[in-house]
Write a structure and sequence with these properties.
Layout: H1 4-15, H2 22-30, H3 32-50, H4 60-105, H5 112-131, H6 133-159
Helix pairs in contact: 1-2, 1-3, 2-3
Length: 160
Amino acid sequence: MMSCYECNELIEAVAVGDDVPDAVRAHVAGCPQCAARLRLAQRIDQTLSSRPVLAAPDGFATTVVARVRRERWRSEQLLDWSFNAFVGIGVALVVLGVFGLVYASGLVVISRDLVAALDIVAQSAGRIVASEAPTVAISMLLLTLTLGIWWWVEQEDARI
């Protein structure tokens, strides 16, 4: 004897007239719930088959596939950036941990001379960066402009 659960799996096939085992027909004949489900499935099938089938616009499939690819690429990019950020943070934590262990063990002692040397290096680097500030500013402006044009082109491609 067939259960309602097993019969329910085949109700749609019965509704559209597919060949089904006689056990399904026998179960539907003796079960009011499954008979009601069958009648509902037949009404739904008749309603759907009486409705006109609309044709998709030209290029619909191509547009949908392009959008899906673009969205998948963006989600993969986000995943890649996140992964790389976490790897970078992990490497930085490992380096800081090793430095902390070495410092705590007494193998490395930061002296005033080292701090003074680092201060001189930082001041020199600051003077170099300050003297190159106009070049850096123009470079950043060009980079921003280039990225803006790239983004605009990507948006235009999305509309096509």
